[in-house]
Write a structure and sequence with these properties.
heterodimer, A: alpha+beta, Beta-lactamase, three-stranded antiparallel beta sheet, 11 helices, about 45% helix, globular, B: alpha+beta, 1 helix, 2 strands
Chain lengths: ~250, ~60
């Protein structure tokens, strides 16, 4: 591993950003999905699926992203990938394609596993990619949702979106005892969109708000310290960075 | 190696350019209690803030 590289860590349910974008890209939202016993028996957060019931892929995606349903993650994986293992293969293929060099996926829900890890930088890159998909962005910014097969609403667990920070336009929470609290979020102010990721952060709501307040102050300014830190192959080139900042300065 | 040299030269030009147009100084970065944290610009992908632990000799709890 290169010097000063990120250390891959457990990431818990922010994994579901990858699950959702793959499902959106490979599936039809109107597909009806039959819920398996394996999905129903998934540990952790749940949308209380019932074995053999049918639910649309669209509803499962809302259950996945708003309620962090692990049962929804398994059902989606089985539908899109043919099996959980098949879907995990797609996840790792997508990670490779996106250049997420320090990420590995072992399941679609993010529960702790030896070969399931990522870094804050890789998750930020993943979220940046996912937010370019209009369907993902729409689901991701939904505060409450009523499934056609339920009589009660699902409320988004992302409190930055629902309560704390008015500029939030999306995000995904995560928690396991081993991973700690994980959070990826997106905020927009004055036509600038920022993405924040924290891993193992007991104060994640507060920290994301502080990062955004600071980040929006910096946005549009020529941040030399920041530029000095941009030196790996996946970052914009120097010319791209200068063009970007000049564009911001003249208000384009 | 070649890319690094280009980046260094580019950075020097950028500093000169910034000093000419009198850019506002960078404000103090926020302290974050996360083990890893990052803030990026969605449009450009530029990293505005990053905290990573593991190889640092300083306390990683706060940055």
């Amino acid at each position: 591993m290169k010097k000063n590289a990120d250390i891959p860590q457990l990431i818990a349910s922010i994994t579901k950003v990858m699950t959702a974008i793959i499902a959106i890209e490979h599936g039809n939202l109107k597909d009806k999905v039959k819920i398996s016993q394996e999905a129903v028996l998934a540990e952790g957060s749940s949308i209380y699926l019932i074995e053999n019931e049918w639910m649309s892929l669209e509803d499962l995606l809302y259950g996945l992203m708003l309620r962090s349903g692990n049962d929804a993650a398994i059902a989606i994986a089985e539908h899109i990938g043919g099996s959980v293992e098949g879907f995990v293969y797609l996840m790792n293929e997508k990670a490779t394609w996106l250049g997420l060099e320090q990420s590995s996926f072992a399941n679609p829900h993010g529960l702790d596993a030896k070969d399931h890890y990522s870094t804050s930088k890789d998750i930020a890159r993943l979220m940046r990619y996912a937010m370019e998909n209009a369907t993902f962005a729409e689901i991701n910014q939904t505060k409450t949702y009523l499934s056609e097969s339920r009589t009660y609403h699902w409320h988004n667990k992302n409190k930055l979106l629902t309560n704390y920070y008015q500029y939030t336009i999306g995000g995904k929470t995560g928690y396991t005892k081993a991973a700690g609290r994980t959070l990826v979020s997106v905020a927009e102010k004055d036509e600038t969109q920022l993405i924040a990721v924290t891993i193992n952060d007991p104060n994640d709501w507060f920290d994301h708000m502080r990062l955004y307040e600071w980040g929006f102050e910096q946005a549009g300014q020529l941040d030399l310290v920041t530029y000095a830190e941009i030196n790996d192959d996946n970052q914009p080139t120097f010319i791209e960075s200068v063009y970007y900042y000049l564009k911001k300065m003249v208000g384009l | 190696m070649k890319k690094q040299i280009y980046n260094q030269v580019g950075l020097a030009i950028l500093i000169i350019f910034a000093s000419i147009i009198n850019v506002k100084p960078v404000e103090a970065k926020p302290m974050v209690s996360a083990e890893q944290a990052i803030l990026i610009d969605q449009e450009s992908g530029i990293i505005l803030y990053e905290k990573k632990c593991g190889y640092s000799t300083v306390d990683c709890k706060y940055h």
